[in-house]
Amino acid sequence: MEAGRREPLIRVRGLVNRFGSTTVHQGLDLDVWPGEILGVVGGSGAGKTVLLRALLSLRQPQAGSVTISGDEMVGVAESVLRRRRQRIGMLFQNGALFGGLSLLDNISFPLREHTRLSRAVIEDLALIKLRMAGLDAKAANLFPNELSGGMVRRGSLARALIMDPELLILDEPTAGLDPVNAANFDELILDLKSLLGLTVLLVTHDLDSLWRITDRVVFLGDGRVLEEGSVEDMSRSEIPQVASYFKQRRKH
Amino acid sequence: MPRPAAFQFSPGSLRCEGDWRLPDVARIERALEGLPVDDTDTLEVDTHAVAQLDLGGSRLLARLAERAQRSGVRVNYHVPDAHRNIISLVETVPRPEVFHKAGPGPLGGIGRAAVEQWRELLGFLAFVGETFHELFLRFSQPTRFRPLRLLAEMEHGGVRAVPIVAVLSFLVGVVIAYQLSTALEPYGAAVFLPELLTITILRELGPLVTAIVVAGRTASAYAAELGTMQINEEIDALRTLGVSPYDMLILPKVLGLLLVLPLLTVLADISGMGGGVLVNWVAHGQGVASFLNRLPEGMDQRHLWLGLSKTPVYAVVIAAIGCRQGLRVARGAGGVGQATTRAVVQAIFAVIVVNAVFSVVFNMRGL
């Protein structure tokens, strides 16, 4: 397909991750193309979260290379990484909002750290992101422990988007949300993607989510990408692991 | 390669160039703020030469436009289609009605703090009451006591505190003996040192030092343990499994401390007196034997018993404050830290207050 002409936004080659004697990734290759929503699935322990951590260079892999828009992320000094990470927005599994800061301060935190914009502009931008994440301005003054699960997810999304990243990484964004909330959140991701021209990498166990928003899905297993294609391709896969994963989950 | 954000301004027109992206765009914020946009009737804003525009960059443009519009200038955007959405996203900012909550003011702050402290006190008393209520309920069902939990708590709160209590009270004994003997020497009254030490250490400092050490060690440990269990929903899990947190956690802690604090106090008394004996021997050549000989005269036994009679109260106060602060932790790891701090501060405060009350009461009764 279009792969021939364009450079991938994320290129992972020969990634190896080990914890002691357990090998999580054994020469994993992965490309993420600009403007797509890629779903990453796999059984528990298949190394989905480890992959995300390696992408952000929060974890040093044993071997392999990760480049994000052409810039190497492995084995690079922390000071260089700091700039490169600004182009990535990450939504952590449980939101990871800072408990000591109000939602507005949480969202504006990266701007205050990394730019020299004035307070007023920072506040404007944080409030705009709050609205884009589908939250009411009233929530701005609340603290994370006063927010519901769905609101935490949205607030955290607003924080992930505050630096206007090209790449948005979502770690199980709809886990623990009720189906209605989860569907709304998926809609939000789609809207934001088309509005901001984001590339989205999404780890999820939510099959509804995969059907609704992903352009392409990769299935991780045995330390590498076992299968890739659209969700339809996945459910027709001949690899037993993949087929059973999708069959198990179609039942309900 | 990204190009730096830049613009060209002539009255009535703003031509933007380069990449207007975060964080680089912050560089030109000042310059934009300083533009005289209110001199003309219209302001033409052209972004065709901008290669990349993000929300940060377009918000700066929007603020400039707002400033121009406030002084009656019409703003016309000439933007490529790709920018239209982005610019429309940042045109308005949703603002909460009450933005920065006004503080209560100095007087209000004092009032608020007073009410809060009063509620803390009531909450504490309620918790103590509840604990004793639960305790008395257990007397009819003695099988619900958990001896193993009790022993574990006694080990954590008592046995492991032995070294620090012994060392600290020994040092306190040394210091007190030195100060007393310096004061007594000029009057030739140094022989009365044993009597004075008995009163000071057995009656006041032994119990107090022990209680303060235990308040610092154990109240914080209780608050942190229960607080962490609370945010992990372990306490709810206990309840759901049909086990009362009182049986499993609180009563063993309260009873355990109730049993070990008097024992620790006796230890502190002994080692504090040991410090006094040492000073007496080194500084005044009064050997251990003569010190011990004088003790029965000076040591009216009541000082020992008066000192020990305070310790159960200290124990209940310390354990109750630690447990209560732990159980109050709401969601969030920061809450555990706050609860721990509060537990230590309140426990030490309460110990000193209780001690003062005891002193007054004992004196009024002529004890």
Q: What is the general shape of chain B?
A: elongated
What is the overall pLDDT average of chain B? Answer: 89
Strand order, main sheet of chain B: write it out. 1-2-3-4
Helicity of chain A, as a percent range: 25-40%
Distance between the termini of chain A: 34 Å
Strand order of the largest sheet of chain A: 6-7-8-3-9-10
Extract low-pLDDT stretches of chain A.
Answer: none
Number of helices of chain B: 12
What's the end-to-end separation of chain B, in Å?
Answer: 87 Å
Number of helices of chain A: 9
How would you describe the oligomerization state of the chains in this entry?
Answer: heterodimer
* Major sheet attributes of chain A: 6 strands, mixed
Radius of gyration of chain A: 18 Å
**Tally of extended strands of chain A?**
10
* Structural class determined from secondary elements of chain B: alpha/beta
How is the main sheet of chain B built? 4 strands, mixed
Describe the structure.
The complex is a heterodimer of chains A (252) and B (367). Chain A is an alpha/beta fold and 252 residues long. Chain A is 38% helix and 24% strand. Chain A is built from nine helices and ten strands. In chain A, helix 6 (179-196) runs parallel beside helix 7. The relative contact order of chain A is 0.16. Chain B contains twelve helices and four strands, in the order ββαβαβαααααααααα. Chain B has a four-stranded mixed β-sheet with strand order 1-2-3-4, covered by helices on one side. The termini of chain B are far apart. The model of chain B has no long low-confidence stretch (mean pLDDT 89). Chains A and B meet through helix 4 of A and helix 2, helix 3 and helix 12 of B.
Q: What keyword list fits this structure?
A:
heterodimer; A: 252 residues; alpha/beta; 4-stranded antiparallel β-sheet; 9 helices; 24% strand; B: 367 residues; 4-stranded mixed β-sheet; 12 helices
SSE order and pairing:
The complex is a heterodimer of chains A (252) and B (367).
Chain A: E1 10-19, E2 22-32, E3 37-42, H1 48-55, E4 63-68, E5 71-72, H2 78-85, E6 88-91, H3 103-114, H4 119-132, H5 149-161, E7 167-171, H6 179-196, E8 199-203, H7 207-213, E9 216-221, E10 224-229, H8 231-235, H9 240-250
Parallel strand pairs in A: 3-8, 3-9, 6-7, 7-8
Antiparallel strand pairs in A: 1-2, 1-4, 4-5, 9-10
Helix pairs in contact in A: 3-4, 3-5, 4-5, 6-7
Chain B: E1 6-10, E2 13-20, H1 29-33, E3 42-53, H2 55-70, E4 74-78, H3 81-89, H4 105-139, H5 147-157, H6 162-184, H7 193-231, H8 234-240, H9 245-284, H10 288-298, H11 301-327, H12 333-364
Parallel strand pairs in B: 2-3, 3-4
Antiparallel strand pairs in B: 1-2
Helix pairs in contact in B: 4-11, 5-9, 6-7, 6-9, 7-9, 7-10, 7-11, 7-12, 9-11, 11-12
